[in-house]
Specification:
two-stranded parallel sheet, single chain, 5-stranded mixed β-sheet, 7 strands, alpha/beta, 106 residues
């Protein structure tokens, strides 16, 4: 049995935190996209935090899902933040359209 690649928790302030781990590639694309969309559209927390502290690599499909979650959050009044991306990953996310105020470097 493999270790979970995606963990979900709720912080004390009610924020939902999604923590991917390792290299997040095509095998996790559907799961991550569905989790992001479900959380924004159905759970509707005040804040959704995608914590990338333990992510070595994020493939283009998953990177696009994180970018799209920011826009979807705006549509549903959910503030989406991307925490702790590595320098290269932060640059990729910014280039793909994640606003700088949504990127919170560790």
């Amino acid at each position: 049995m493999r270790d979970p690649v995606l963990e979900v928790s709720t912080s004390a302030d009610g924020s939902v935190v999604i923590q991917p781990h390792g290299s997040v590639g095509p095998d996790e694309a559907v799961e991550l996209r569905q989790l992001l969309v479900h959380t924004v559209r159905r759970v509707r927390p005040l804040r959704l935090i995608v914590d990338l502290a333990d992510v070595r690599e994020l493939d283009p499909i998953n990177l696009g899902s994180v970018v799209a979650a920011c826009g979807l959050g705006d549509d549903h009044q959910v503030a989406v933040f991307v925490d702790n991306p590595s320098g290269p990953l932060a640059a990729q996310l910014a280039a793909a359209g994640v606003p700088s105020q949504r990127l919170r470097l560790g």
